[in-house]
Amino acid sequence: MEQAHERLVELADLARPLARVFADEGFSLYAVGGSVRDALLGEPRREDFEIDFTTNARPDDVARIMAPVCTTLWEQGRAFGTL
To answer: Any idea of the CA torsion for 80, 36, 51, 68, to the nearest 10 degrees?
Structure first.
């Protein structure tokens, strides 16, 4: 259980700066997916580690918020409400 706690703390530390950016714009941001599952299981961080997020921000808001902090934004899901 201690290993799971350490992994969740690590995940929170990595996600916190981006969550603050979204919070400053009035939106929530939550880590989801395999990285959360693996952290809960106490699995070691994989070399191809990534964090998936969900938010109450609409795609246009996400694009605007992310523009200053990312170099690539995958837009193929925009028609479905995802980026």
So the answer is: 80
Q: Cα(26)–Cα(38) distance, rounded to whole angstroms?
A: 29
Element (H, E) at 5: helix 2-24
**Strand-pair category, 29-32 with 52-55:** antiparallel
In tens, the pLDDT along 33-46 reads: 999 999 889 888 88
Contact 36, 72 (CB under 8 A): no
Domain ranges of the chain: 2-80
| Pair 75, 83: CB distance under 8 Å | yes
pTM, full prediction? 0.84
CATH fold group of domain 2-80: Beta Polymerase; domain 2 (3.30.460)
Is the pLDDT confidence value at 1 over 70? no
